[in-house]
Amino acid sequence: MASSSAGAGANGGGANGGDNYSSFPAVKTEELVAVLNEMGLLIGAEDIVKPQGHVAHRVFVAFLECLSGTNQELMERTRQSTLAQTEYKEMYEDGLQFLMLFREVREMMAAATITDFHLQDMTRPNPKRFKRQMSALVNFYRFRSDRIAEFEELITNSEDLETRRNELEDDIDQNRSELDRIKRQREIDEPKVQALKATNAQVTEKLMQARRLQDRLINEIDVHKSDREQLVAKQQGLFEEKLRLTEKLTYLKARVVSSPKKMKSTVTELVEKVNQDTLSLSESEKKARDYEERLEVLNNLDADLEACLVAMEQVNAELLRTSGEERDFEDTAALCETRNHESEQLEHQLQQTTRKVTLAIEKIERSKKLLDGKMEIHAQKMEALSEELEKIKAVKQERLALADIRLNEGDQIEDKINELRLMYDDYCSRMHRQKESIEKAVTVYISTLTNTLDLDRFEDATSLQV
User: Domain named Nuf2 DHR10-like: which ranges (predicted)?
Assistant: First the structure.
């Protein structure tokens, strides 16, 4: 089922994949054969015109090792590590190896702009599709400058990312050290802050108590002020009454008109009244002194309250500073978390880039080793060809010398031939002259015979001779 669906996909891809011809030039069969022979594959034109499954397998494996650096050893290690985690691995060995090869070849073909590569292209290759795929791989094999530029750009970006990562790591280390310092300072200030909070609570409680006491004392002061005003007014009235009584007593002393008993009773009444007023005045003065002492206590409480307010302001300032430091700490922690997240992302990107660079370097090293091996093979071939060329040159010199000898001999032979030709011409001329003389003699002889013999008999003899 898999091969049939792959075959259908391959046919469909062949029908729709004609646009891929525009992405690379078609390569002639002779050039394909030359490139494959250069890669060490003994492939003929007949194998490309009428491809077979084993031929396609050899070609794709060779290009895979040359272009992507994926060799059989690497695939075998991957296959073994995958099968180690699978039960009944003997059931999947061959199939897994072929599927891994197909996946690698398909990725290579996608890099070579062939996006319609299917499983049937490896098992039952189509001649047109196979030649098109070979053209893409040969072009990719010959013209890889864009990939090399991309690889160099990747290396440059990797270096920039590594530099950026180092800078971020330095910033993170600084932020961590600053965060540790803030944590240590916070731990150091924690008892002080707790003590300040406790002191603040105590001072707040004292302030509330003092405020309640102040309100109560202010109310009492207001009451006592009103009492004091009344007492002062009463004291003033008593003082005026005392003056009036003193004047009256003086007046009465000056005027002793009444009886002594009446005067004595009046004086006694006045003295008692004065004593009562004096006692009332002393009590009022005592209350006034008491009020003054209470007022002084209230003034002291006001001063203590102002000091407590100043302390409260200082505590509030400390609390504001502490809350600001807490916010700074939270901001720094959030910034550190953000930087850590960015660092993790950059580290992940750097790991991916490092893996890509490592794979690319491994590919380059393998390509370099392959190129060095090919160069060594070509160097050996060149040495062998040089030796053969020297031998050919020596043989050529010998043959040139022999040719000179043969030319000299040919000249001599030609001279001899010319001499022989002259001799032959001379001989021919002599023979021709002899022939003419013989013909003349024969003619004379025939004429003589004709004259002497019978003519008919001569004609019969002549016809017989002819």
Answer: 272-386
